[in-house]
Every structure is written in C-alpha cells, then in structure tokens.
Amino acid sequence: MIVLKNPNELREVVQGWKHDGAEIGFAPTMGFLHKGHGALFSRSASENDRTVVSIFVNPAQFNDPEDYSKYPISTEKDLELCKAVGVDLVYLPDRDSVYPGGIPSIELRIPRLMRNLDAKTRPGHFEGVLLVLSRFFHAVEADRAYFGKKDYQQYLIVKEFVRMLGFPMEIIGVETVRDPEGLALSSRNARLSNSEKEEALLLSRALRLGERLIQKGETDPEAVRAILSDVLDSSTSLKTDYLEVLNADSLEELQVLKGEVLLAVAAFVGQVRLIDNITVRIS
Asked: Distance between CA 182 and CA 110 in Å, rounded?
C-alpha cells in the first residue's frame, strides 16, 4: 500500500494506473476510521482495479472551530485498516497542500438540495465539502467515488454536484453500518461516554419506529414526526437539532407520504452531535 502526502506524487501514480487501463475507486474521509469506512473501501476494492483513500480533516466544512479542534485523529490505526481491506493508496495531505494560500472564499451551492437538514443547521458545511471534493476529484480522477448513506444529504449533493460539473465519475452510496445495538457507526461516537451511547440509541430506535408506522399504513408526515419526537424527547440529555420526514430524492417536504421517504434526525448527545437516517419505500 502506497502512502503519499504530496499532490503531485499522487497525480503521477494515478496517471500511471490510468495509462495501464486501471479503473480507480476513491473514498474521501476525515480519518478516525471504523467499519463503516471499511465497507466503503471493500466495496471499492471489489468494483475497481485500484482504490484510493484520502484522510484529511477539512477545516472548510466546520462551522464550529471547537468541533474542528476536537475531531479525533488516529492515523496509524487508519492505515492499518486501509491495508487490511485492500486499499492501494492513502493520500494524507496537509492543510497547505490542499489550500495553498489559504481557504478561498467561493460560493458552491446546489439550492434545491441545500434548503434543510444539515445545510440549514450547519451553514457553510456543504460548501466546504464541495470545495475540498472538487480538488480531490481533479487530483484522483476516479471512475467511481464512494460515500456512506449515513450522510444522506451529502450523498445526494455530491451526486448532483458531479452531474452538474461534468466530472466523469459515478457516485456510489453505501448503506449505513451499525453496531449490534443499532447505533450508526461514526467517528464522533468515540467522544461519547457509556451512558451517552445508551442515550444515542434513541436515534435509531425512533427511526425504526417511524419505519414501522409507515409500513403499517401511516401516510401523515406530521403524525410520524410527532411520534418520533416523543421518543427523542424522552431523554433529558438528548437535544434534537432537526427531525424531518422528506422525499428521499428531492428532500422536499411531503403532504402525504408516498414513494421513497427519508426519515432523518440530528441530535446533540451531551456535547456530541450525531446524525442518522433511514429510507422507507411505500409501494
């Protein structure tokens, strides 16, 4: 497995692979990797000749400087996981390599997908995501890029961003990986105490309850939202950031539940902000 920090060396290796006819998969991450990331890498390794992973805590996508400073880092363990699941190259750039001259002031928006959810409660977040991805996409020139559906809004936005700008790659969404009790795997989970992890399970339990209600025939989004809210409000240490019932393709609000529905929640458990979601198809 190759480990590189220099963008020019990255491009040289990638161009050599492409010259030999290799198909390349890419998974951008911020490190502190877990089995959810491993699922992305394994999927890429199974569908491509070469897999590239980037590890970079992107300052441009944090609207809270304290959150950025507390983001966990475990580079040595990250490299071990990458090697174990068949990653061919890990790109470990520093801030100056990604943003020479500083982070530019630039407006990158996809209005129809950036009206609610994290785009509303974390202003500037997705603009920062798209900024760093545009630079990585140009450098890696992958055939396919892999994103976890736990960040469902991000997955939709990146897919549309790639389509709009004509990047010649396919965006692949990979299902959320959960622990045995149902908690969605996240690098932020490491900051939870044992008691907070128990409280965090309310997110997935609420979503599963909503799924069962819809499957039993409930078509009123407000009724579903109210019941999910009751579950989340049962914890005094959990503070809901948002709770939405939306069309899973457009992220638009629904008057009547139909088609594929997204149930999405973000909440603070103590000082840690977690997100989770599920999609439910109504036949």
From this structure: 32
